[in-house]
Write a structure and sequence with these properties.
The complex is a heterodimer of chains A (403) and B (375).
Chain A lengths: L6 H17 L13 H16 L18 H14 L7 H14 L2 H12 L5 E4 L15 E4 L5 E8 L9 E7 L10 E7 L5 E6 L8 E11 L4 E2 L5 H19 L6 H10 L1 H5 L1 H29 L10 H21 L11 H10 L6 H11 L15 H13 L1
Parallel strand pairs in A: 1-4
Antiparallel strand pairs in A: 2-3, 3-7, 4-5, 5-8, 6-7
Chain B lengths: L6 H15 L3 H10 L8 H6 L18 H13 L6 H13 L5 H5 L5 E4 L12 E2 L8 E2 L2 E5 L2 E12 L6 E7 L5 E7 L5 E6 L8 E14 L3 H36 L1 E2 L2 E2 L4 H30 L4 H27 L10 H11 L5 H15 L3
The chains are: A alpha+beta (403), B alpha+beta (375).
């Protein structure tokens, strides 16, 4: 057992650290308003610098501007960026998930047109998958792309929970092209220029009061056949690639929410709380959970280092982390009282943010279904949608609601 | 980054599993509830496997391995509810090693069986060393220790000492007049030593109330850190043992959930069952991660060992409680019958959670360590 770098990794870390040390003066602050164009501009420029230094898209193949490195090097870069106190890349979604999808399924033209500006932050991307009526059951999306006589497509529908849409140049969008086949079969993946006629982006405010996500509306948006990624009717397979990369990014970014150290320090300063057995029990549980996630992450890295992909059970770390975070905030509020709910308090943001995070990247219930079936080998829940054309399914749903 | 088992550790685990598979330990756990004689004596098996010397260095005839290796063996024992006296043995060998005691060779060879009399290190709310009380929540004072040259005279009572019956050497921690801990090796047959065997609820767990009345032992050259270390080694072993038991609970429950049908489908297809079993897996994986932390911290970051071992113990105790109750739930009524294995794991869970300070105390220690950590 060893938590240290191999000599090669240590050398790589040294190189990354050295570069960050020399250039961190050029970096914008770690956080800022996503509605401030100057801040976003600075973050794009910083991503460009990271890309030139080989610190963005390090796992991408060299031919697309990446470094062809492994996930461990990616983690080392992330750790060093965090240590240097500078922000990372702005377009984590593009570089972490959408770029790799295009690398796997895109045409040569798409790769050479879209990947370099994505990598350098010149063009930011957003993911247009979830809809108001399709999240966990993603294949149930209703956004419709109709093929016209000239071979182009006309897109209508709505997407939601879209991070970065307000300043994105492109989106990777899953749409239904054929409603008369079972739902997984009639889907197609498109590249959508966000400045196209008929695209409307609206901020979606959350409990925090901030609009970190967007809703995106499509009204008769014309898409060329060149915008199809992975072939018409193959959208589900293409989406699975994106989701696999999403699992990787979610799994390894989650060091911790809500700084357990800050919570412990706060409680230690309050003598009554420090001596209170129920406070100590809850704090002990929170710290235990968060520590388990940290070492679970190291176990997952060990698997990666051997060239394997961690199993879906790594997703349980998210369940533990979010729930431990919620318990931590609850404890802080119990001890500090209503003052901790002030908008500018240290506890306001996470208290408001974590309830929604339970559903992010797959709801807790869906995650437990997947893990129960894929890891424990339990039989799936019977499904009423298998083999039924999507249009018929929708008709049945409407009928059920009406009766 | 490498948190994987080495080839040697894989072999150690497989060897333990192989040795244990030759005994009907789970059946024995049931029979022993009514007939204590039914419990097989696994000490000879442990000696043949070299477990007494796991932590003792090679110079003294041991294997010179780490606590994590001992935890792997404990996990295998937990998996089949085997009554192997590791909980008394391993922390005792840690303390005997730290003190460089003359008994090390004999212990490593399996000729002398030691047991650790657990003493809890002081905390931020309790300044003294304490031991298990015979009953109640308030902890008992550690035995009083009077140092006389190379010898220590001990007076006091330690209740619910794992593996005390049958032990030939008791490794105790007493408190000197100035409050400092004093470690001593007391032959079990010395004058003033009384061991009253007790079993509670889980027949596989051999316990004893130990009374020391002017009992004389060899003074171990071990400081407070070494005494505390033995306590946390014991916590780590309990955690590892729990992980093994949780694993069996989960495997058995999953198999049943696939086979048992209601309303035309396997019960494991219902989310209510599936999510409960996924919760067992979540707790299992979390505890397993903490076992790695505990094993790693003891070798490489001793300052964090109290936190790591306590976190593992806390998570493991709760995981086993949850897993054993789930096993009963998933099996329905049959899971609550005498003939079923589930109650045996439940018995293991409920007693284990209350030994060595209890899960509650371990959780408290995690909080204490977190609040004491420098910013």
């Amino acid at each position: 057992m060893d938590l240290n770098d191999t000599p090669e990794q240590a050398e790589f870390r040294e190189k990354v650290r050295g570069w960050l040390e020399a250039h961190k003066g050029d970096a914008p602050p770690r956080s800022g308003s996503s509605e401030d164009p100057d801040y976003i501009g600075a973050r794009r420029a910083w991503q460009g610098k990271l890309a030139e230094a080989g610190l963005a898209g390090a796992t991408w193949p060299k031919e697309y501007g990446g470094q062809g490195l492994g996930p461990i090097e990616q983690v080392i870069i992330a750790q060093e960026i965090s240590r240097a106190g500078v922000p990372g890349i702005l377009d984590g979604i593009g570089i972490g998930m959408l770029g790799p999808t295009i690398i796997a399924h895109g045409t040569d033209e798409q790769k050479s047109r879209y990947l370099p500006p994505m990598l350098h932050g010149d063009e930011v991307w957003c993911q247009l998958f979830s809809e108001p009526a399709a999240g966990s059951d993603l294949a149930g999306i209703q956004s419709r792309a109709r093929e016209s006589d000239d071979g182009s497509f006309s897109l209508n529908g709505q997407k939601v929970w879209t991070t970065n849409a307000q300043f994105a140049s492109f989106g990777l969008l899953l749409a239904r092209t054929d409603p008369d086949v079972p739902k997984h079969k009639g889907l197609t993946m498109f590249i959508v220029p966000m400045d196209a006629q008929g695209v409307t982006v609206r901020g979606l405010r959350q409990i925090t009061g901030e609009a970190e996500f967007n809703e995106v509306f499509f009204d008769d948006v014309t898409l060329d056949v060149d915008n199809v990624v992975g072939g018409v009717g193959n959208g589900w397979g293409t989406a699975l690639t994106t989701l696999m990369f999403e699992r990787l990014t979610i799994g390894f970014g989650s060091e911790s929410f809500g700084s357990p150290t800050h919570l412990a320090e706060t409680l230690a300063k309050d003598d009554a709380a420090r001596r209170d057995s129920s406070v100590r029990q809850t704090l002990g549980e929170v710290i235990t959970d968060m520590t388990a996630v940290r070492f679970g992450g190291y176990r997952a890295l060990t698997v990666l280092q051997k060239g394997q992909i961690p199993g879906p059970e790594a997703g349980l770390a998210k369940v533990t982390m979010v729930n431990a975070g919620i318990t931590a905030m609850d404890l802080a509020l119990d001890v500090l009282g209503p003052e901790a709910l002030a908008t500018d308090s240290d506890w306001y943001y996470l208290t408001s943010f974590l309830p929604g995070l339970k559903s992010a990247g797959g709801t807790e219930q869906i995650l437990r279904n997947t893990i129960g079936e894929r890891v424990l080998g339990l039989p799936p829940e019977p499904r009423l949608d298998k083999g039924i054309p999507f249009s018929e399914l929708r008709a049945k749903e409407k009928e059920a609601l009406a009766s | 980054m490498n948190l994987a088992l080495s080839d040697e550790q894989q072999l150690l685990r497989e060897a333990a599993r192989g040795a244990l598979s030759r005994h009907k330990t789970v059946e024995a756990a049931r029979e022993a509830l009514e007939d204590p004689e039914a419990l097989p004596d696994l000490w000879q098996m442990a000696v043949q496997a070299g477990w007494p010397g796991l932590l003792i260095d090679e110079e003294h005839g041991g294997a010179g391995l780490g606590v994590f290796d001992a935890m792997l063996v404990a996990e295998e024992c937990g998996r089949v509810l085997a009554s192997v006296p590791l909980l008394g043995l391993v922390p005792a060998t840690a303390l005997l090693s730290a003190g460089g005691d003359e008994s090390l060779e004999a212990v490593a060879a399996g000729e002398l069986r030691p047991a650790f009399l657990p003493a809890r290190p002081p905390g931020d709310l309790e300044s003294g060393w304490t031991v298990e009380p015979a009953s109640g929540r308030a902890r008992a004072e550690a035995p009083r220790a009077q140092v006389e040259g190379d010898e220590v005279v001990l007076d006091g009572r330690v209740a619910f000492v794992p593996d005390a019956p049958g032990a030939e050497l008791l490794v105790a921690v007493g408190e000197a007049e100035d409050g400092s801990p004093v470690a001593a090796a007391v032959p079990a047959d010395a004058e003033g030593v009384e061991v009253e065997p007790v079993t509670r609820y889980d027949a596989t767990r051999s316990l004893g109330h130990v009374t020391l009345s002017g009992a004389r032992g060899r003074r171990l050259d071990a400081d407070g850190d070494a005494c505390a270390d033995a306590w946390y080694v014991a916590q780590s072993l309990l955690a590892a043992e729990s992980v093994g038991a949780v694993q069996t609970c989960l495997e058995t429950s999953v198999e049943y959930a696939k086979e048992r049908f209601t309303f035309g489908r396997a019960i494991g297809s219902y989310q209510a069952i599936k999510h409960e079993l996924t919760e067992v897996l979540r707790r299992l994986e979390n505890t397993r991660s903490l076992l790695y932390y505990a094993g790693w911290a003891r070798e490489s970051k001793p300052d964090e060992f109290p936190l790591a071992a306590s976190a593992a113990r806390s998570a493991g105790g709760k995981a086993l409680d949850f897993a054993a109750r789930s096993m009963i739930n998933v099996h329905g009524g049959i899971g609550a019958t005498w003939e079923h294995d589930a109650p045996l794991f439940f018995r293991r869970a409920e007693l284990s959670r209350r030994l060595l300070g209890g899960t509650h105390d371990a959780t408290d220690r995690v909080a204490e360590e977190a609040m004491a950590a420098p910013a």
